[in-house]
Amino acid sequence: MATEDVVGKSTGETAVTTIVNLAEEAKLAREGVKAPSDAILSVCKSLVAGGVAGGVSRTAVAPLERLKILLQVQNPLNIKYNGTIQGLKYIWRTEGFRGLFKGNGTNCARIIPNSAVKFFSYEQASSGILWLYRNQTGNEDAQLTPVLRLGAGACAGIIAMSATYPMDMVRGRITVQTEKSPYQYRGMFHALGTVYREEGFRALYKGWLPSVIGVIPYVGLNFAVYESLKEWLVLSKPFGLADDQELSVATKLACGAAAGTVGQTVAYPLDVIRRRMQMVGWKDAASVVRGDGRIKGPLEYSGMIDAFRKTVRHEGFGALYKGLVPNSVKVVPSIAIAFVTYEVVKDILGVEMKISE
C-alpha cells in the first residue's frame, strides 16, 4: 500500500510538473519569448540556412573562382590566363570539365561553415548593436542605420573569416595546382596536415591580417548595402518594386548584386595580397620577377605592407586588381544567390527572424 502511495504521488508530481512546464512555455510564446529548445532549434535552422546559401552560391560560380585565383598568382613572364573567356577555355582544354571545379569541394567545405557563421553572427551582432543604440538614444523604435549595419557586417565577417581561415589558406594552394605542377596536396585534410607539418601552425594563418582588414569593407558593405537598399525600396516603393512590405526574388537578387559589386571593388586589392601571402613557403608556387629582371622563385613577404610594396614595385599598381573581371562576374551572382538562398531557406525552415529585422 505504501508503495502504491509513493507511485501515485510520483505520478501526480510528474503530471503537475508537466502542466507547469507547458504553462510556462505557453506564457513565453504569448510574450514572444522562445523556450530554450525553440531557441536552439532556431539557431540550428539559421546556421543550416547560412550553410546552404554559401554552398549553393559558391558552386554556381566555382569556375570563375578558380580562374580568379589563377590570375592572381600566375607568373607575369609566362602568361597563361589573360582574360575570362580565354582563361576558362584554357582550363577546359588542358584539364577538362573537372578542372573548372578543381578546389570547389575544399571551397565548399570552407564556405559552408563560413557562411553559416557569417549570417548567424550578423543576426546576433545587429541585434546587439540595435539594443545598445536604442538604449543610448532612448528611442525604443530606433532602427539600424547603414553605418550600424556596416559595423554588424564587419563583426560577422571577422568572426567567420577567423574561424575558417586555415581551410581558405589550403584551398588557395589546392586551386592553383595545374596539370604541370607537382600534386603536393591530395585534398583539404592532406593539405592542412602537410602545411602544419612542414611549415608550422602559423603558416595556416598566412595572409590573415589583410584578410581581416579586407573583410571589414567587403562583408560590412555587402550587408549594409543589401539591407539598406531593401529598406529603401520597401519604404519608397519606386517603380512598383515593393508590394505589401515584400520584395520579389528578382529584386532581392538585384540588391544582392549591387551589394556584391560595391564590396568586392573596395576590398579586392587586399584579397590579392592575401592570396599571394598564402603561397609564401610553398616551393611549387608560381615564380615571379625579382628586381634584376630574373625569375628566382616565389617572392618572400615579411608582412602585408611588404607584400603590397613588392607587388606594386615588380608588377605595377594594376597587379593589385589581377583577376578583377572574373571576380566581378563571379561576385555579382554569388552574393545575390547567397542572400536570396539564405532568406528562402529560412522561410522553408520556418525561422521567423530575417536578417533585416
TrEMBL record:
One of its GO terms (biological process) is transmembrane transport. It is found in: Mitochondrion inner membrane. Its main location: mitochondrion. It comes from Dendrobium nobile. This is Mitochondrial adenine nucleotide transporter ADNT1. Keywords: Membrane, Mitochondrion, Mitochondrion inner membrane, Repeat, Transmembrane, Transmembrane helix, Transport. GO terms for cellular component: mitochondrial inner membrane. Solcar repeats lie at residues 41-128, 144-232, 247-348. InterPro entries: MCP, MCP_dom_sf, MCP_transmembrane. Belongs to the mitochondrial carrier (TC 2.A.29) family. The keyword Repeat applies. It holds the Pfam family Mito_carr. It is a multi-pass membrane protein.
